[in-house]
Amino acid sequence: MTEKRISTNSSGDKELLDGNPRIAISYRANDLFHAEGAIAVNAPAETIWNLLTDYNNLSTIIPKVIDSRLIEDNGSHKIIDQTGKSGILFIEKSVRIVLKVTEKFPNALLFEMVEGDFSTYTGSWSFRPGSSREQTFVSWQTDFKPTFFAPPFLVSFLQHQDLPVVMKAIKALAESRYHKNKESNS
């Protein structure tokens, strides 16, 4: 796999304005995978932040997350226990991770695995203002190494299948919530 970096600067923003996510996957040395995605959301960063930090309800927000629980809250540092599922046709794999999340409101959520089904799982969500207060460029990136056998072609396929679904779901829900709140406050 070749690495294709996703541009989340002003020149790359135009690509994201069509409402579709941009996804890139690469395979790195020592069996490490890198995945990243970006999407433009027509809602303020605070709306997206509130969705992604509703840790006990992420399974109703993010497809592929089947359970998520906040197990420790130390202000801007949280410990989250999550279970996710992915697969092809009738073959599905569940994975569990406990993440240490560092919240840097309103710009980023940094995460790293404390324990789980990976030997490495670290990354971030970041939020950058768009051309108005009602637009945010959301990006996600992670480096991960499963403890189970996962051929690179299969990981790439699954990430290209799952990440657009996740990014579009976050976009749709954030935009819906923002516009409902905006209407109710008018």
Automatic annotation (TrEMBL):
Cited Pfam families: Polyketide_cyc (PF03364)
CDD domains, per database record: SRPBCC_11
SUPFAM superfamilies xref list: Bet v1-like
InterPro entries: COQ10_START (IPR005031), START-like_dom_sf (IPR023393)
Boundaries of every Coenzyme Q-binding protein COQ10 START domain copy: 41-169
Family: Belongs to the ribosome association toxin RatA family.
Protein name: Cyclase/dehydrase
Species of provenance: Prosthecochloris aestuarii (strain DSM 271 / SK 413)
